[in-house]
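Convert to structure. Protein one:
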Amino acid sequence: MDTRLAVYIVHGIGDQEKGFSKIMQENLMSNFEKALDHMGEGNRPNQAGALIFQEGLWADITQKGEDILKKNMFNDPDTDVDWIKARKFFADYLGDAISYFKGSDTDSQYSAIQTRIEGQIKELSSTTRPGQKTLLTVVSHSLGTVVLSDYFYDKRKTLEQEHELVFSNFFTMGSPIALYANRFFNHNNKSFTNFKPQKVKDPKGIWVNLFDEDDIVGYPIRPVNNHCKKVVTADLNVSVGSFFSGGTPASHAGYWEDQEVGKIIAEKLAIDWLRVNKWDTKDQTLKRITAYKKRYKMPAE
């Protein structure tokens, strides 16, 4: 097992999110160090290089079509349209969600986005130690959570053998995954039983869904069906955003630099790092994970 941890940080909707990955990296590295110190495990060898980061950008794929569509719609001399600025904003955000549709067309934007994600995973894998499996933690935001959930479902049988990465932790922030369950609604039994997102592969891994109650894009996932209750460790309600954006729908962009969010993610990374380096016994790891779940009031298994 690689003694380092791979962390893939995936953006959501909008080009304005470029640069958020760097903010999250700094957030995680700072809180990773604090978590180790709090555990009495600070100043371990190679601590500074414990986390291998990879940024995940994909929204430019859908943006190309949206830009052409907006040009066609809002520059037609025969058509008058009001609220142009608001409509452009809506076209960008709703357009990404509509564009990301799984079909059989190999030229679809779904395929293009998943190909981009596969390339980034391959790039991340090239930085890990050959011949050794590496624990992979994914931190994703907004529609990026849906993109990555689909990716891990599609790659559930081949990820480890192709890239030597073990899907260990999934942290979703401001996620609309629950809304996508409606694609699987069964009209016969009036349920969402066929909605089955992929669970993490690591037996000691977790899926924590972080959402702010004022973020209208982020929703809890566990209540959707019994399968979601099994694969999602916890839906945690966090308060994010600045003095001006907190308590408003603008809080949707507040997860990246929020210290509580960074602490929740980094503490699990610290537990994993002590585990893969065998500085903790199996019993110590179990105690740390149990205490971690209790501290953040995660549901019992």
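Protein two, convert as well:
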Amino acid sequence: MNIKEFIKISQFSSQKELCKLLLLSFYHLRQQSIDHFTTATVYELLTKLGYPHPNQTRLKTNIKKSKLFISGKGKDSYRIHPITVEPFDSEFPSLTKTSEEIFAHNTIIDESLLQQERSFILSLIKGL
């Protein structure tokens, strides 16, 4: 599932700022195995998605007050509290499943796979 589909399913636009942060963090945790974020990262993500950028100081204060997040690995780094992740896993089960995308090319075997093969194999394959 891509980020735009997730935004639609999660009703992202109607959520409050901290919930948007939680949804973005959960999405990146499950889709890209990124378990931490900074307020600067959130600022950039929201801007790229076309949403108004939050006040970083206010956002940082709200994150620290919230029980949904815990401190991350680095300075000004945060992550979702593990207890918070479980309900989201059940609410969005399609994020935990990996999808297989098949890209069609006009060849049977990709040439990059054949770069180190013997020349007679290459000539045989190209002859097909």
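The mean pLDDT is 81. Helices lie at 3-9, 17-32, 39-48, 56-65, 82-91, 93-96, 119-127.
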